[in-house]
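It is worth pausing here to work through a concrete case rather than discussing structure prediction in the abstract. The textbook approach is simple: state the sequence, then state the predicted structure, then interpret. We follow exactly that order.
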Amino acid sequence: MQVESFPSMSAQTTKCLIIGSGPAGYTAAIYASRAALNPILFEGLQPGGQLTTTTVIENFPGYPEGVDANQLMAAMREQAVNLGADVRPGYVTAVDLSERPFRVTVDESETLLAETLIIATGATAKYLGLPSEDKFRGLGVSACATCDGFFYRGKDVAVVGGGDTACEEATYLAHLCRKVYMIVRRNVLRASKAMQERVARTENIEVLWECQTQEVLGDASGVTGVRLVRKSGEVFEKPIDGFFLAIGHKPQSDLFKPWIATDENGYILTEGKTSRTNVEGVFAAGDVQDPQYRQAIAAAGSGCRAALDAERYILSKL
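Step two, the predicted structure:
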């Protein structure tokens, strides 16, 4: 494929470089390709993003019967490639955003220069670190109630956490599930007063105070229960079908913090309804800048905005 080149520089150059391969990254590549920006996209350590850790997606528009998450991401990737995007394996290990074109290092060896940069590195859900969590991830263990709660209609589930996110997840699941246990390691909720009251008003939510998860239990079909330990030392089990983590997310923004402004939790700050960051020519899309929605369709939409913003920026410099 043809890329932009600058005679005075030996490194490969491009009008648009995209870091990240989830719905935001692939959608940005689709739009940037159609805008003739000849984008290069590096897929990172998890091609397809964290969406590939789930199974069937039933809330992505256009799929009345639902769609396998890996198939959806493979289709997005194929569409971007078919439109001309240069999608490559590789993990970005260093960036220099002090001047344009931006300097990006991949796998600690290859260096590229980019007129514009779209950061779509996503956010990673925080887990407890139990081996059984990994074993049953996608088989009853989830970090997204909105994504996977539908599969547990009429069943019993547990939510780990005591903050606003955990309360929101628990009340959302309570409308679908027969019983929702909240596993809280303290004797109070950290959530706002309004969220605490919402939990208290929901009859099928039971808070298990001063408890920590010792093990997620299951068999070949998936999660069947959870083993808990109270602060007093008592160990007990609860039969459940789904185990939801709601202890926070970590945006993958550390690499960019020397130049890019973030909030107190590390989410990249963007200007108004745009994808523009505080560095001219750098844009952010998807979960790395979205602490609130964290949905595939929202990430895809922000990827579209980032590509359009990058195109307008380049045109403004002509």
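Step three, interpretation. Confidence is low (pLDDT under 50) at residues 1-9. The domain at 12-124+249-316 is CATH 3.50.50.60 (FAD/NAD(P)-binding domain).
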